[in-house]
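Researcher: Structure for this, please.
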Amino acid sequence: MERLGIKTPEDFISLMGHTLGYWPKESLVCLTLDGRRIGSTLRVGLPKEGADTARYVHDVVKCIATDREATGVVFGIFTPAPWEAMDEHPYEDVIGILAGELSQHNIKVRDGWIISETSFTNYFQIVPDPLAGTPLETIKTSELNAELVFRGSTIEPGPGFRIPILARRDMSEEVFKNCLRIESMTPPVATAKARTLWGGLLKGADLPTDAQSAELLADFKFISVRDRLLADIPGLEDSLGDLLLGQTKRPPHWHRVDRAQEVLLHLYTRADGTDAAPVLTSLGIIQWWEGRGSRAHQCFQRALEADPHYRLAQLSDQMVAAGILAPWSMDKNSAYQPPMSRGPRIEGMGMA
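Model: Predicted structure, token format:
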């Protein structure tokens, strides 16, 4: 298998951005290491003033320790907060407790950086001098960044989910007619018909026609049908509950998840009013499966704007707000990787 090597701090910082898909702000980002191979990525918001530091670190360590093969961690503290020469290291209490607790799991903190909007500085400099920071622009010339960009990866400026705003035609009448048709069927028949259409689209490459879009928009308005279609996305044979909660023993087929997102985004451009809520909520659940809590929250909020009483969006947003992560996203063997990152192993050849 092809291997991509990490040799410089620029490579590590670039990988953080590419893995997340955006440049985080006020965040702690940790990359786990298994020997010399890169494992999983964790991003959490930096603790606010007065927060329970011990509790914060405990939650971070709990997530990192789910990677049972991890032997090391590198981290980035993304913050524009000023760091004057000879000041204490930013979040020194957090990093100190973090290193201690990780050592109890036989995980060593290998390196770290303070990353501002324009530069980065090694966290472990004996005499910290922010003025000697390296311009963040230098990551553009790193070998790993160049390779990932060549494969089609991009780093967005923020975590916002790109929900398209396109010219829409009013399909509410067609959706309503399909709802009447579904109500005339027995639930098993309605579900089977919806699964046939949905499954064919997930296997194909074409976007649904307007007639198919109206039919699917109606299907997603019925709870039992919606849940079954969501559970069909990963392409696994398992219980419906485990599939929806992302806690199966086998990883999902992420190419199917990518395809489902493409189809759902198209459906959203055909949705009107409350018809958009089930689609936006489904997109949010996919983001949650992928470990993208900020984007999931954005989708759920958009869904609640379309229908303030949409229960699945309410409950899902509460789950994200409580910091509950999808089990898939906490296991490096099942966690989502962007299409351009799948395949080659990434190894830290130049780690300190």
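Researcher: Any notable elements?
Model: The mean pLDDT is 87. The chain has two domains: 3-158+343-348, 172-321.
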